[in-house]
Fold each of these.
Amino acid sequence: MEAKAATDDGAVGPDRTVIEMKGIHKSFGGVPVLRDVDFEVKAGEVHALAGGNGAGKSTLMKILQGVYSKDSGEIFVDGKATTIDSFQSAKAAGIGMVFQEFSLVPTLTVAQNISLTVEPRTKLGLINDRAARDRAREILGGMGVDINPNAEVRSLSTAYWQLTEIAKALVQDARVLIMDEPSASLAKHEVETLFELIERLKARGIAIIYISHRMDEVYRIADRITILRDGRRLLTKPLDEVTPEQIVEGIVGKQVEGELVYQAREHTSDEVLLEAHDLTVGTHLQGASFTLRKGEIIGLAGLMGSGRTELAQALFGVDRIESGKLLLNGAPLTLASPKDAIDAGIVLVPEDRRAQGLVLEHSVRENLLLPILDDVKLRGFVDPRLGQKKTQALIEQFGVKVQDPGKPVNRLSGGNQQKVVIAKWLGTSPQVLILDEPTAGVDIGTKTEIVGMIRELADAGVGVIVISSEYPELLAVSDRILIMRRGAIVKNLAREDIPDEEALQLMVLGG
Amino acid sequence: MVSSTAETAVQPSFAQRLGQIDWRRYIIYIAFVLIFVFFAFLLGRQGFLSGNNLVNIFRQAATITVMAVAMTFVIACAEIDLSVGSVAGLSSVIAAMTIATYGLVPGILAGLAVGVVIGGINGALVSTLGIPSFLVTLGMLGIAFGLAQWITASAPQPILDETYIQIFGGGNFGPIPGLLIWMALAIVAGVLFLNRTKFGRQVLATGGNRQAAEYAGVKTKRIKFTVLLLSGMAAALAGMLYAGRLHSGRFQWGQGDEMSAIAAVILGGTSLFGGAGSVVGTLFGALLMSLINNGLILAGLDSSQQQVVRGIIIILAVALARKK
């Protein structure tokens, strides 16, 4: 292993700074996203990068990969000022990315993927598959990973996809690996394999930038941590000098989110609306049980992969419930499709509004009317004037900022798009409203408005389930918070039992 | 307040509005008018503008239009139907043979049944098994064509029933050729269904974003099944119109029409990727192709040259209509 490191990296010794980013500034459309950020990573170091949503982590990394160009600041590679303005120049500088959404071609073999774009050639200029296989075997062997280079990638589990990704980066002589939530889609024993591999890569002098929300992993694997908040660097410290509480506080910060505070609400009713007993779907949802009362807002907290989205999709009829019972107003409910759920009065504002919530090329009006076409019919035909009236009513009721509802919905800002998704359900007068990450990618002003909408609906008797990774809003809006872990609901907490955001974060992490 | 700018926005002037019109959306109508005027000047003396010739342009577009209206729904739903041409051929021979043996009404029903059965099979395979419609209907193209040739032993099937010929495109109603009435019916039904019914909106939503449509409560499988069923039925009707106009059923009727129908739909501004469709655009797409054919014949080009010119015009029109 040591001999290998020497041939790979030549002069680079341990403790040498491989990448240094200095005074990085970046704005999108006049909004500063990164302000004077410094970041560095040394050979043989695992450097954790942490921060809340919108803190600037991914923007910083995308600048390092040449996806975005910085507005000002400098990047040094091995101490030399280097321009990184494209994927190619990042690659040339030895920067490799292990993509969160994998960048492999599923139908090609492991060896073919590893050598993609840098295929070894025969004398005739044809691709030398045998050499590619040998190279893959050598790299995978060096990583201490047992994967058949001839296997098609699609036949492997996600853990192996990730290992193949890493091998692919190494073949291209990457000396810096960026890993973005690498454990998110892995099972426990697979995470162990990943950590062993990271140790081996460290020993070879490879620098690793590790982005993760999981505190235990960060402590286990990282040497130093840098925390970003609101586009600024808050601190860079060795991990043995910071406590988990400090990190959580650093990520969360003193929220200036004025109206995002909990308002105690009158409980309108003790009447049980929705009851779930031991819902099971595949491996992601394993025996989840809860009750939702009329006019109540439940917050669902949990890590990625804890089964929150799967629960929402099961309640909305997207995924068939394999076992368990679902009762609405005391009557058993079977859902074969979203239409069944909608007919029963259960609606979902899905996690991915662009892929699941909206027909982007269609107008605001068409999107708003899609679930309620029956209500705007006159003598059997959809009536444009009725549709126009209904659209206008929904737009005004929810304060969607739109100049012309006949224009495509993809011209609206993210926040306004989300309001359209929510508003389109209100025409259906639902009994249960489920919102999956309703404020992702939404500015703070709209966030407050969405929280206001949710409260209003609950006051009108709708039962609401809110899934969110953003704890301030979860705490602001929920009457009760359920914590999910491994497909089940493990805690059922009244709002007043959670003193603050840090407490919630620690509970979610399993404290 | 910052938002005051939005509130005080003034009404745009006429010139500004004119500038805002997205010309690409209307390229088919512009092209139609330009080419029409061009032929009118060039070929006026060869009788291009005579009433007879103008009716001919419509008549030649009629059967394609009937298929293309249904194809508009299929393509707007992000699917395709390659089997329409041979379904038309099969329905023409089935209708002709049934009329010869059992009479008029069973003949009409049998012809339509061809469309229901084949369209239904196409739809079921696509929606329940999830096989791409391109493959299902490509296979069906061969099956229907082969069947039509097989059961007739390649022989034409004459139709002697005057009533059938009168109804299905061979006769006139007053001064109006029957074909034009069928064409008008197809257009009116298509416009109403696509723009003014729940079904039409759901077709567009399914084609625009199937997952979002499903999440909005649209039964997208049923929608996909229905558009392919309708396409089969329209193709069968087109085949029966061929049979009426040409007084016989033949397996060759409709051969290659799938390409003309698809071209008419795309020329008319329906997105090949689904989500947007215009039935009136489709009508003009079909008319444009018929117009070009007609003009080129009058100009004395032979059929090989016509095909080259027609191909160039189609590519040009689609290229100009392309989004930036």
Amino acid sequence: MDTAGVRCEMKNNRLIITLEGDLDHHGAKYIRDEIDKAIFLFRPMSALLDLSSVSFMDSSGLGLILGRYTRMKETGGILKIVNPSKEIQKILCLAGLEKYIPIIKNQETLTKKS
Amino acid sequence: MKSKTLNKIDIKIPALSQNESLARQILCSFASQLDPTVEEIGDLRVIISEAVTNCVVHAYRLASTPGYIYISAELFENRSVKIRIRDTGCGIEDIEKCMQPFYTTDPAGERGGMGFPIMKELSDKFKVASILKKGTTITLYKKFGA
């Protein structure tokens, strides 16, 4: 089994959230709690959700992303998705999330200011 | 004319969240005998995950202990797979509502409300049968190389 993992760090005034493994219902609660703790602690105006190392995502992942998008929006911040795989992008598009949440496909952007 | 069955499995697993990944792995390994593309097996992985997660999250929410998920899968000569995922839980009151995008009976759990719409979109045939307090059965077909 590919256990889900999460790492949160502030870089260039942005919260970089790096997820890995399977983003399903089983792992979603732990990840959600960790991200919410970081949002509460750092109060970022911008957060990047790096999905480069996420091997699988279903609608539980959609719920998690939508929830974090809403949380950031409530505090005046923005959330962007970085480097989803082709399979994950398909799920994001099926739900129409790309209309609300910008998707960045180049990992280089994590170290540049945009 | 019905295509010839090549292989068939039946499994029974407790409705526990740690078994969501297990179900995906077993059924995708089984379906790999039909030599699907990466995209096709990716679609199947999502469909299975949605169906099994529904059993874990919703079916036994009123029960004191989690029940079981009964899964059968059949491979056919025409490169299609039929998967049936059944629970004996609380059943679904309004299937039509559950088919609507972003409808969820568990808003506090931050469920996406996209389970059924995604399963329907990624399957070639998709059917839900449910009886209150008896359980729910999801039957789907996925044809590879379509």
